[in-house]
Write a structure and sequence with these properties.
By secondary structure, the protein is an all-alpha fold. The chain has 2 domains: 59 residues; 58 residues. α1 packs across α2.
Length: 118
């Protein structure tokens, strides 16, 4: 039971840890950009390390599934919020377009009256 780690095992573990941190860095940066943030690389790195240390990467296996579920719920809420903002933006654009359309109709009718077309 008291096995010593070989250099190859240590290097392999370090490479795996580096790949995990790098992949978390990419995932967190994409998620932050999807939610409309424009974070700096330091903020992304800190966020990735926090996610890694809170169990998302399997460091604390006991709480890993709970953390993943919690993160999924938070991301669902974020995507719902983004969807709501998009819908609100579409409604605003529809209202503005409708108001602009009415304004243009009014102006054209005034021009037609002045020219005696109507």
């Amino acid at each position: 039971m008291n096995e010593k780690l070989t250099t190859q095992q240590i290097v392999s573990a370090l490479i795996n840890l580096f790949v995990m941190i790098l992949s978390l860095f990419v995932i967190v940066s994409l998620l932050l950009k999807l939610t409309g943030h424009s974070p700096t690389s330091e903020q992304i790195l800190v966020s990735s390390l926090i996610v890694l240390l809170t169990g998302y990467g399997g460091v604390f296996k006991k709480y890993g599934d709970i953390r993943i579920d919690h993160l999924e719920e938070k991301m669902d809420l974020k995507f719902d919020h983004i969807g709501n903002r998009v819908n609100m933006f579409e409604r605003q654009m529809d209202q503005r377009f409708s108001a602009l359309e009415k304004q243009m109709e009014f102006r054209f009718s005034r021009i037609e009256k002045k020219l005696g077309i109507v």
